Structure formats: structure tokens, C-alpha cells
């Protein structure tokens, strides 16, 4: 399925929204939540690494990886490498981000994997890993046969979008869960922090929408296209 419109305006909006999303998460964690730390007596600082790396990794880098084929007027092999590397960065940051959630829970005496958000999070990172490994083996090295690549490509793209949308939904659920905990502990439901968290979640969802729109729109002409003329 294609929208039949140029991807360029969608990709520009996507880039802007992605940067805004990461900045908003940092503002929340640094200004309202006290910052980030790998080791600290204040275990909340350890937890703060989790939302930052998830948004920076699975959401921002994951989204940029998906739209790289539509936002970069480069040769196909170059875009394939950019796509692969960005997804690898997203996967690594996502794994570390999930690890910090376990680290925070373990050091705080909190049970693991009791919420829908955590269940979906584990599912997302497992599916993301499977998707990356399959893409690496079939499309990069050692590479499948032309028939296998041709058959796999639409399913690889569709499954990639599905995993990304699931990651966005899980992130939004995570914002909701954390804000609910904070409000249960006395945070003003209509205060500036609560509004910031909700707004950040909305930006995350809108970013995801524009990633999908960019993926469905028409790619710009590339050097490969000009060589074929």
C-alpha cells in the first residue's frame, strides 16, 4: 500500500517530532525527576534511565531507521546500511533501557513483570531482536537468494511497522503507568509535570503516526533511479 504522495513533507515533520520527543523526556527527567544515574542511593534516578533510553532507542532511532529509505536520497545499498545500523542502535538502547527497569526493581525490592506495560515491553524487545536478526541474515549477510529476498521484503516491512507501532503503544502505556504511580503518591493531577508527561506521550504517538505515513508515502528519486534511466 502506498499513499501516492511524496514522503518528504512527512519525513521533515517526523524528524522534528522525534527531536521534540527526546527533548521533552529529558526535560521531564532532569527538571522534575532529579536526573539520571546508573548507581545511586536514590533508586528513582536509576529508573529514569529506562524511559530515556526507550524513547531515544526504540522510538526515535527505530522510527528514523524505518523512514531512512524515504528520507535519504542515497543509493539503495547506503540506505540499507543506514537502516541496519539505526535499528541496531535502537535495539541496543532498548535492551539496556529494559535492563535498567529490572535493575531499579531489584534494588528497590519491587516485583518484576507484573504489569501489562512490562509484558508488552518484553514482547517488543524480543520481536525487535528477531526482526533485526532476520533482516541482517536475509538482506545483508550472508544474504538470501533473490527469490527469498523478494518474498520476504513486504513481510519484513509490514512486520517492522507492526513492531514499531507496538513499541509506541507500549511507551504510551508506560507514561500512563508512571504518571498514575506519581499521582497516587501525591503528584498534582493538573500540575506542570503531569501535563508535561501527558503531552510527551501524545508527541510520542504523533511521531509514530508520521513514521507510518512516511513509510507509506513515495520515496524520493535516488542515484540508483538516475542510473537506470
Strand content range: under 5%
**Low-confidence runs of at least 5 consecutive residues:** 225-229
Radius of gyration over C-alpha positions, nearest whole angstrom: 19 Å
Q: Which H/E pattern describes the elements?
A: HHHHHHHH
Give the rounded overall mean pLDDT.
Answer: 94
* Fraction of residues in helix: over 70%
Number of helices: 8
Alpha carbon gap, first and last residue: 25 Å
Q: How many beta strands in the DSSP annotation?
A: 0
Task: Describe the fold and architecture.
- With 229 residues, this protein is mainly alpha-helical.
- Helix content is 79%, strand content 0%.
- It contains eight helices and no strands.
- The protein has helices spanning 8-32, 43-47, 49-71, 76-108, 116-140, 146-184, 192-216, 223-228.
- Helix 4 (76-108) packs antiparallel against helix 5 (116-140).
- This is ascorbate ferrireductase (transmembrane).
- InterPro entries: CYB561/CYBRD1-like, Cyt_b561/ferric_Rdtase_TM.
- Pfam families: Cytochrom_B561.
Amino acid at each position: 500500500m502506498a499513499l501516492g504522495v511524496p514522503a518528504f513533507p512527512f519525513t521533515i515533520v517526523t524528524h522534528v517530532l522525534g527531536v521534540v520527543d527526546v527533548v521533552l523526556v529529558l526535560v521531564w527527567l532532569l527538571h522534575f525527576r532529579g536526573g539520571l544515574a546508573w548507581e545511586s542511593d536514590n533508586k528513582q534516578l536509576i529508573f529514569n534511565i529506562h524511559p530515556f533510553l526507550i524513547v531515544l532507542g526504540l522510538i526515535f532511532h527505530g522510527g528514523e531507521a524505518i523512514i531512512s529509505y524515504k528520507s535519504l536520497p542515497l543509493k539503495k545499498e547506503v540506505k540499507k546500511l543506514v537502516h541496519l545500523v539505526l535499528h541496531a542502535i535502537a535495539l541496543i538502547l532498548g535492551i539496556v533501557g529494559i535492563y535498567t527497569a529490572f535493575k531499579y526493581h531489584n534494588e528497590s525490592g519491587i516485583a518484576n513483570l507484573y504489569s501489562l506495560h512490562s509484558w508488552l515491553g518484553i514482547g517488543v524487545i524480543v520481536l525487535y531482536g528477531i526482526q533485526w536478526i532476520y533482516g541482517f541474515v536475509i538482506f545483508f549477510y550472508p544474504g538470501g537468494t533473490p527469490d527469498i529476498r523478494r518474498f520476504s521484503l513486504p513481510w519484513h516491512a509490514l512486520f517492522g511497522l507492526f513492531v514499531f507501532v507496538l513499541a509506541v503503544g507500549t511507551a504510551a502505556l508506560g507514561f500512563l503507568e508512571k504518571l498514575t504511580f506519581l499521582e497516587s503518591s501525591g503528584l498534582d493531577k493538573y500540575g506542570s509535570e503531569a501535563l508535561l508527561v501527558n503531552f510527551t506521550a501524545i508527541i510520542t504517538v504523533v511521531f509514530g503516526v508520521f513514521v507510518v505515513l512516511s513509510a507509506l508515502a513515495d520515496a524520493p528519486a535516488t542515484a540508483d533511479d538516475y542510473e537506470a534511466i
